Amino acid sequence: MRRQRLLLDAYLGSAAFAAARDRVLRAPPHRQRGVLVNAGGRKLLTHLVVTLRVLRHHLNCTLPVEVAWHGPDEMDAATLAALDSHFGPVTGFDALAQPLEQHHRNRATSSQGRPAKLGPWPTKVLALLRSSFRHVLLLDSDSLPLADPSRLFDDPLYQQRGALFWPDFWPNWVQDDAYRLLGLNATAAKALLAEGKGWGRRDCESGQLLVDRGRHLDALEVAFYANSFDDVLYSQVHGDKDLFPLAFAAAGKGREYAQVVVPPGGVFRWGKGQLEVKGQKTAVDGWQLVGAIQHDNWGAPAFFHRTMNKPSLDSEQWPAELVTGPLPIRHDLNPKYMYIQLSP
What we know:
By secondary structure, the chain is an alpha+beta fold. The chain has two domains: 2-256, Alpha-Beta Complex (Spore Coat Polysaccharide Biosynthesis Protein SpsA, Chain A); 265-340, no CATH class. The chain has eleven helices and twelve strands. The strands form two sheets. Strands 3-2-1-4-7-6 form a six-stranded mixed sheet, sandwiched between helices. Strands 5, 8, 9, 10, 11 and 12 form a six-stranded antiparallel sheet that branches. The protein is globular, with a radius of gyration of 20 Å. The relative contact order is 0.14. The mean pLDDT is 90. Belongs to the MNN1/MNT family.
């Protein structure tokens, strides 16, 4: 990791990086703000169509949409043209179509010179680097907007910091070794990212995030660097989501990291005999987490990020049985099984 970080630091101090950032800052008016969705292949394209239909026909959102897929087998020209015809403006690109640059870690390349297919989380961050928008709302394909997201770009906290992330249900899942591997002092970085509040922040949940690439292209480069070492770091964190705040800190921008202050709510269904409780051999009944309701900084519901029961061509979705408001930090919520101990 050290050798790759030295290459990255050299790039961030180079004329090539300054030129890349200048290109982002000079994005034409129609590429200043937009939505980037990582989606490709039969499964995720189903999610994408639902998201696009909701954006255009239910929320009347006119923001341009960019689709990033991960390899030529995940999208064809006819499908992209159909999406644009029904839900335009929609454009797209293969995030893996171009070779990685020298400062990017590339463990292998294909015979055509393309980077080897990365995991979905590292490629998601790479798509952010290769987006054509300056101000980007990045959505997972299963994170459904509940209100027109256009106004999020005018959020005062986003205007001040140039980045806006959303909180997860739990805190402190990031191991101290992850900070160390990124050259950070864990205690100091945690205090910085908590903004001096005196208590730890919730972990980040990256089903949706908002970032000014012109202002924070360096932090995004560090985020891709960190995620490209998924074989080293992912045992210390829960995927890409936990590495965004660490990347801001490692880029010297910990004070510019911003997280929505309203906690997520939950969408649940009642599960019979499936809740695994520590110290008990027999599973019990419990509320099964279907997804998170993320809010804006004004407290209004903004996104429904599904963890299960996702749109499918092969099955009907079952209805939710419980929707909550913002939840307190839950230490008994198990992210492996997504169950929570609540009274029925």
